Amino acid sequence: MGDTLNILGEVFLNTISHWWIILPTIFVGLIVGGIPGFSAANTIIILMPLTLAMDLETGLIFMVTLYASSRMGAGIPAILVNIPGTAGAAATPLDGYPMSKAGKGQQALAMSFVASSLGGLLTTVIALATMPLLARVGFYMHSVEMIVVMLFGISLIAAIAAQDMLKGLIAGFLGLMIGSIGTDVIYATPRGTFGFLELYDGVPLIPALVGLFAVSEAFVIIEKRVILSEDGEVAMKTPNWRDTFEGVRMAFARWVHVIWTSLIGLAIGVIPGAGASIASFVAYQQSRTYSKTPELYGTGHPEGLIAPESANNGVTSGTLVPLLVLGIPGGATAAIMLIVMQFHGVNFGPGLFEDNPQVGYGMFMAMMIAYLFMILTILPLSRYMSRVTTVPTIYLAPMIIAFTLVGSFVPREYMFDMYLALAFGVIGYIARRTGYHVAAILIGVILGPLLETYFMRALRISEGDVMVLFSSTLGNILWVCLVLTLTLPLVFDWRRKRKEILGK
Amino acid sequence: MANAPEKWKRQIGGELVIPVLAIVFTLYYFSTIIDAPWTAQVNAFGIGAVLLILCVAFIIRGLALVARGDGSFGMANLFTREDIQTGRIWLLVATVAYCYFIVDFGFTLTTFLFLLISMLILAKGKQPLLILFVSAVMSLCGWALFIWAFDTRFPRGWFEETMRMVVDYG
């Protein structure tokens, strides 16, 4: 306990001393997060060359701050112009936009920032306090359990995040198959490499994520010539201090609401594959269910805005838990952080808090301090941030392509990696246009080599007996959860359709 | 009823692209490990088999939709007239060219040319001076931030070498 406190104190002071990176990163995150369709994941990818050039601590603080602030920034266009910056802010306009239309755009923005900051800060403190407990979970996870958890993560994305479970599973398993490219670990037999020597070490992750997320996104957003409507621009040109403070007061007056909806976000964030979009809708739905005035939801009700904003920022600390404890990214942004940290030689998973406790605790500490700084700094500037949404896509898309593609060259200095990123961009574009989940593909690519490693380890221990996969109690419980995850949505869907037919 | 809107049909053709690619890739992968030791095969055969089953199930479901009249083999969700109208295809060509030339011309110059050409394509030739200015500023900012300030390992060419000498020797 004493050691942990010492480490926490050391990490706190160290993180505070990086204020010079936290402050500008908050503004960058808010600006880029406010661009519709441009997620925290994409922001980190674009600035990845910078992250790779930084030392480990600075890079870590930079990414975590960017993650938290871009999540908050996504609410700006959602409130002002009914365009969520990311899927995680999809529930925000339900009550935020009616507030803007009613002339309370500034109040809505200020309330959203306060709810997001408080929600994020609170859940980060809770996650940090329970981390030693959660870290023990890792020691119960052996090869068999890890295999099931990985398949569980893929299945959860398919069942929850993807609109069509079958498509989600295809995307996840295609990712696993792509992740299996390269030589096998025992006899170095090349597998699925198309004859490219550059693929003998496996599929490099940075080109994969650049292509799947950034390049494909750029090719999609050019359909919208100008992001904003004229009404949106007008809404951004009338700053007023009094309205801002009224929004702050409205958020603090509903502090209980902030707390319990952010806890929903934390709980959902811990589940791999769930994410901000699910958390925000669940929180909105729960908030409405237990409200004394449910009829006001959807008409510009403050609690209808607070619920999704607190929840989607609660998710940010939640997604770090499976990443740090198990080494399994809970979402796209966590996956990208994993890749960048691997580049710096840090391996997440059960041993992290033994080998690198500063990194484990540092990520939460950076998030906590980022949220603290955000409360103090963004309110005065928040009124002007949303103007970034006026940048036309004809400028935006080529910049995204140029700066991310060249970023995929940096780690290995192979031109091949730029072409590989482009190829993944085409796959990502097809996947987006036809309803496949690109995050599922990426998580599959990341987990593919890990799954093989654990699988081979389990087989070696059991001398080749495949039934080892069902040999542990915890593993079997997880298998049951996995099967339930895949079957329950089908059962619910069947029951819903049956009710509809009976109703007719 | 002649003017009644035609019933919307799910475009299964586009949705089948990923499963078909997955099947082709999986079979190719299997062909590369058919004579390999079992340690190189076991994981891939397991995952590949599941993937093939999922893809076949999806194809059967798609065919059933088409047979019921709820779907078509169209690809309107993937290829549309917008691909030409928005300049997406030419943007793709410009992107391939960017990857090809960056190794010879270096990051700054190639990025400038890529931004200029692709923005002109997307803007259909409008506002050339503004686009020229934005392209120049962005590529120079990229050079200043990534190469000059952080010494990132971006491809270097004539411009970067010249600027290095200017910075080093004044």
Q: From the alpha-carbon coordinates, what is the Rg of chain A to the nearest angstrom?
A: 22 Å
Strand content bin of chain A: under 5%
Unreliable parts of chain A: none
Number of domains of chain B: 2
Strand order of the largest sheet of chain B: 1-2
Q: What characteristic shape of chain B results from the CA principal axes?
A: flat
> Please, how many domains of chain A?
1
How much helical structure, as a percent, in the residues of chain A? over 70%
Largest sheet of chain B: 2 strands, parallel
N to C succession of SSEs of chain A = HHHHHHHHHHEEHHHHHHHHHHHHHH
Give a written overview of the molecule.
The complex is a heterodimer of chains A (504) and B (170). Chain A has one domain. Helix content of chain A is 73%, strand content 1%. In chain A, a hairpin with a 6-residue loop joins β1 and β2. Chain A is built from 24 helices and two strands. The model of chain A has no long low-confidence stretch (mean pLDDT 80). By secondary structure, chain A is mainly α. Chain A has a two-stranded antiparallel sheet. Chain B is mostly helical and 170 residues long. Chain B has two domains: 63 residues; 88 residues, no CATH class. In chain B, 73% of the residues lie in helices and 2% in strands. Chain B contains eight helices and two strands, in the order βαααβααααα. Chain B has a two-stranded parallel ribbon. In chain B, α2 runs antiparallel to α3 and α5 runs antiparallel to α6. Chain B is flat. The N terminus of chain B is likely disordered. Classes of the chains: A mainly alpha (504), B mainly alpha (170). Chains A and B meet through α4, α10, β2, α21 and α22 of A and α2, α3, α5, α6 and α7 of B.
